[in-house]
Amino acid sequence: MQIQIKGVRVIDPGNIEGIRDIRIKDGLFEAVSEPGQLPDVAEASQDVNVIDGQGLIGVPGLIDVHVHLREPGQEYKETIETGLKAAAAGGITAVCCMPNTNPVNDNAQVTAFILSQAKKVHAARVYPVGAISANLEGQKLNDIADMKKAGIWAVTDDGMPVTDSQLMRRTLEYCKSLDIPVLVHAEDKRLADGGAMNEGLPATVMGIKGIPNAAESVMVMRDIALAELTGARVHFCHMSTAQSIEAIRAAKAKGVRVTCETAPHYFTLTDADIPAYDTNFKMNPPLRSDKDRAAIIEGLADGTIDMIATDHAPHAEDEKQVEFDQAAFGIVGLETSLGLSLDLVTRGHLTLIQLVEKMAKAPADLMGINNDIVPGNRADLTLIDMDTDWIVNPDAFVSKGRNTPFTGRSLKGAAAFTIVDGRIVYTRSSSF
Ligand SMILES: NC(=O)N[C@@H](CC(=O)O)C(=O)O
Ligand SMILES: [Zn+2]
Ligand SMILES: [Zn+2]
């Protein structure tokens, strides 16, 4: 299949910013030219898919470095197929899947299984992340070198912190020698102490046990110290607090090799927005105060926060339709991420170029892949319609998960086309 995109505004930071015609062939970008320079499609062969790029923005395929696909083992929540299709519907061309499946992705067989399942699906790509410790138990280090050979690009015990600082030091030394990053779920379980939402007035009013900011930031500070000690690459997942951002800002200024992500809910919502006992607003880390939300936006704007990832965490209805403190932590995010993130541009917090850096370029840098829109590179591309107004309706989600706090929210901007490996894997229908 060939694709020709005419007159699209391309934003590929550091490479292109302007109107271009793009030709895609055999999975690769074949030509990227100033408008009017490509031969007319009528001259080309019949199987050319022509897209009128007018009014659309073309960006390198969006990459989400933090997604829970739930397969193997919890296919009732999500499968690799539904998750990768949901990603495509959200304009995301590649996802990194967390290892907290059942069995855990703590060995090369599970990694190979995930890759083989993904191969059957024509949607987003998958980049598996392996577990640090056997069964995420924080005791025994896995054979990370073997998993790397099978296809992982990073490790994490996400969902669980690595409580043992010595094990974390060994992990960082091991991963430094393999040149792969360690993704940190920063949580001090003793400080979190079984809490279910942010510690503060809203929790007190609802009578729900709170989780203090320090439950996150003390572990961020510990792992900055260990990154400094070992020289390893540390990436902090789902940052939610002002104190974490302050610590990472200082670490970067010192030259410590750390990066971090936040998720759309942390720059969009606060604990004061949680309707009484609504478990679709429950996730880990929890929604914080307005001061934290402001610090997250500031961190995105000044570059302290490198990227936006969803922490897409689908759960079944019966895991959410229980008392707040009993409900599963986590919300879905793949299909709302772009719309919510574009709001940062609308509100003037980020430029569109900065947003593309946070949703496509910085993730690629972390993973060591090149997603520039240049001839010869494989064609992963997201075409964004900035003007489309739509309302979040979980019943229309491609994901099996319906657990979103954004039901009924009006958003502006969405993926019009998602192209992976030179194939259109998603086209937005006009019925939205
Ligand atoms: N974020 C969540 O609230 N839940 C995640 C685990 C995690 O990301 O820590 C999950 O797997 O459900
Ligand atoms: Zn986590
Ligand atoms: Zn997660």
Nutshell version of this structure?
It catalyses: (S)-dihydroorotate + H2O = N-carbamoyl-L-aspartate + H(+). The chain is 30% helix and 23% strand.
As residue ranges, the low-confidence spans are none
- Total domain units: 2
Overall 3D form: globular
Number of strands: 19
Instruction: Give me the CATH superfamily of the largest domain.
Output: Metal-dependent hydrolases
- Under the CATH scheme, the architecture of the largest domain is Alpha-Beta Barrel
**From the structure provided, what is the oligomeric state, counting identical versus distinct chains?**
single chain
Compute the CA-based radius of gyration: 21 Å
Which compounds are bound in this model?
N-carbamoyl-L-aspartate, zinc ion
Alpha carbon gap, first and last residue = 27 Å
Total DSSP helices: 13
Pathway: Pyrimidine metabolism; UMP biosynthesis via de novo pathway; (S)-dihydroorotate from bicarbonate: step 3/3
Active site: 311
Keywords: Hydrolase, Metal-binding, Pyrimidine biosynthesis, Zinc
Catalytic activity: (S)-dihydroorotate + H2O = N-carbamoyl-L-aspartate + H(+)
Q: Which features does this protein show?
A:
TIM Barrel; hydrolase; 432 residues; zinc; zinc ion binding; binds N-carbamoyl-L-aspartate; alpha/beta; binds zinc ion; Dihydroorotase_CS; 13 helices; Dihydroorotase; Urease, subunit C, domain 1
